[in-house]
Design brief:
By secondary structure, the chain is of the alpha/beta class. It contains 18 helices and 22 strands. Strands 6-7-8-3-9-10 form a six-stranded mixed sheet, with helices on both faces.
Amino acid sequence: MTMTPDAPSTPALIAVEDVHKRYASGTYALRGVSMAVRPGSVHGLVGANGAGKSTLIKILCGAQGANAGNMRWKGAVVDWSAPAQALAAGMATVQQNTPLVPTLSVLDNVYLARKESPRWDAVARRVQLTELSERMGYAIDPDATVADLAVGPRQMVAIMAALSRNPDVVLLDEPTAALSPTERDVLFRAIRRLRDDGTTFVYVSHFLDEVMDLTDHLTVLRDGRVVLDSPTAQISQSDLVTAIVGERLARMEKTTRPAHRAVGEPLLQVRQLASGTKFGPVDLTVHAGEVVGIAGLLGSGRTELLEAIYGADGAASGERLLAGKPLGATPRSAVAAGLALVPEDRAKQGFLRDWEIWRNLSLPYLRSLSWRGMVPIRSREEALADRAIDDLGIKAESRDMIVGELSGGNAQKVVFAKWLYGPTRVILLDQPSAGVDVGVKAEIIQLVRSLADQGRGVVIVTSEFEELLTSCDRILVMRRGRIVADRPAADTDLHELTALASGL
């Protein structure tokens, strides 16, 4: 671990000392983390997905407790058991998904649940909100209903609600993921102005160009440990990326697909696809026998892009072609044409958890498995399930086992199997290996390759860039809703993908 060469003499406003966090599942989120945040600074907290950033933020604000270690607030050891205690002490938090009341106005949300005075003084609150807007340099209609606001303004309302309490410390967890460039610039100016007035910030972000530009000090977490802690001015961009990816470079599988493989004709073509502020416009082409990865961080628009390609976003505009023919505007028409989606949230969207394996697997094929396309023939459904269990190595007592009782990896195999025995020509995979063990990840990578070898096209979205390097022929990098790079997998590496996705 690299530490600051000459630690400032100013006492820390908030600090954690040798903090450990282990969840009941056995997962270690934090392994002896120590961090000191000096008053009047912007302290950056960065790391890859799963590094422990959000867990540390939750411990700092009292939303979760640590298993071991201490936290100090203004020099004194504290043990907050609820966010309200941290808020009362002077620490405000803006989480990734800060809850607002959509039916209330901006004014009501900013000053919700305040008890400084015995009655609600709307006139005084309106004056205070105007003053806060001027301090931030962000104008917003105080009477606007939050439900009518776009995602970016809603996030700004959440930030204004935190700042309205004049806190000593503000914890910002991915505050710019939903903001436009203009709103991001407004927020940065407000943070700098408030920092100069004495407010302290802990700033969590995947966008490394932001943290390099905004922060005074950086702490990097990897696998639940602090691996870099230094003034931002003393860290190079290359050192920062290396600290984040670390030994994963050395551990990455060396079984990348052959360089510049021959692929077939274009299967999926997307032209000028866009959806409001979510993403776009995006162009991409997937050929027969090709695996295309989309590397992107939180808020990049990668999941929204897959949903729009699949026809699940009614607001999307642009052209979608499969084998040269326009795709319909609904998922049903996409499936009929040969396009399939394995969603990120498989428990809610990928299967019916209270149904048996055989009934889940036959859903896309009921017509072909039915008598005269109307009455399902159970023996055919069961035969299909037996085939899938054998082909994919699904570990289950029998085809009658309830899918909700399977392990995460075997449930994911069921979701895959739904699309393997029909007319699917292109399959979209959103975080296909999330929540599965290393062994199943390897099996999924092998399955993806076999799909391409059969002549199908595959698009993979994942936060694990190593998986893209291992399984893909080509990798597109997505940032803030747009494709910013297109690389043959054989000609790039984890370091470059992380830098491109982070904006460096």
